[in-house]
Structures are given as C-alpha cells and as structure tokens.
Amino acid sequence: MSRVSTSPVSKSLYFFCIVLSLFLLYVDINYKSFERTKNFYKSFTISSAYLLKRVTVDPFIYIFEISKEKSWLIEENKKLRQELEKSYISNFIISRDSKFFIDDTAIENFLDLNNINKPFHHAKINSFDIEKYLCCSQHRVFIEIFNNHDINFIGSTVINDQGIIGQIIYDKPIAEVLLLTDVGHVIPIISENHFCNARGSGKPGIITCSYSKLIWPNPIEIGQEFFSSGMGGVYPSNILIGHVSDINFIDNTNIEFDLNLVADPLQSIYLGVFEGL
User: Which of 33, 168, 186, 201 has the fewest C-beta atoms lying within 10 Å of its C-beta?
Assistant: First the structure.
C-alpha cells in the first residue's frame, strides 16, 4: 500500500501559514489593525443581504399584501352592497304597505285582461331573502295570505299585477314561494313554434330554456314571446312569461336561450294566490 509523502517545501509552507495566522491574530487583537476591514465586510454582507431581500422577497410580500387587501375590500364591498339591498327591500315593503289597500283591484284587473276566472286570495309580501336572490341559486319570497280558511295552498300559483312570479312550497304560518328564477323551479312554456320546460337560472329576472333543432326546426328570435302552456296543471295557460333576451348555440343542433321575465317579484307587495292547482 503506497503512502503519499509530504515534501519539505510543503511542510515549510504549512508552518509559515500557521505562524502568519497567529501573527495577524495577535496584531488584530492588540492593535485593532483589521477593524476597518472587518467593518467593511460586515457592512457589505448586510447590504448584500438587504438588497437580495428587496429584489427577491419583498416583491412577493408586496403582491401578497395587495392581494389580501383587495380580497378584503371586495368582501367588504359585497357586505355593504348586501346591507344596502336589505335596507332597500325593507324600505320598499314598508312604503308599499301603506298603499296596500289602495291597489286592491290590481290583481282583478290582471285576471280580467288575461281572461282568467279562478278563485284567488289576496296576499302580501312579508319578507324577502335578498342575499340569496342576488347571489345564489335559491330565490324565495315569504308572503301572508288573507282569509285562507285553513286551505292548503301548497303548489298554488302566485301572481302580481304583471304576471306569474312562482308557486307556494310551504304555506303555514307564513307561505314560502318558490320563484320562477330559482334553479329548482321548472315551468312549461310555449310560443307559436316552440315548446320547452324553462328552468330557473339563479339570476334575478331570468329563466333559461334549451331545445334541439331536430325537434323544433324554426329559429328562435330575440324578443320572441313565450307564454305559460298550462301543461301539468300547475299554472294557468296563455299568461305571458317573458321575452327571449339571449341565444347561445351549444352545438350544431342544440340551442339554449334566456328569457327576461315580465313579472318582477319586487314590483309590488300586493299579490294574488290561486286556490289549489
């Protein structure tokens, strides 16, 4: 097994380096000769670290803080908007309440115009879940029905002086109305050349339909009117529901379109409820 021998020159060099190091250490301790050099080194190291932080870390911290602040502002803006909408609804109900019995012929006028001869009960809005109406899929309104005489109104149609707004899904003690725009609601509607089961979009004032050109070859047009078909026996027939406002071609044969409803559930707190289905 071979050994690596150290030459005399190498040994002398090692010894010289050790002696030099001890000498420099002695001089620095006693005379502070390298204080300026050490201070420069420390300053350079700190400055470099600070500069590196400013270039690499700080931008990410800044972006994170901006994003966090933006998210907070968006959330606060949303809360303020919802509070404003709540206040609007409350003030709307209060202001309309004083005019309730002044407009007590509005429903009769609507029924006469649409040649509807069905017994109905007067009702008015008690409360409205504005948060869900503006943001979410559930669109409900809660109403008081007058002179109900223990009648079961579940499934009954609810109208205002503009048209159909929904149907009752719970009726005691305050009736809960499932609005046409609720995603869980479906209403069969018809026009001159088309029929479809319109479903709630989850957006205020809009319902959605889809159909196939293989079944209904005639094109849909913006502004086209759709009426209640009366199929299923839930809603009376031939009441104007809405107008086509947007058309989307899903593929070569399937089409989806939106309808703007003619009846706004916030137009009036005065409502009518038909007896039974």
Answer: 33
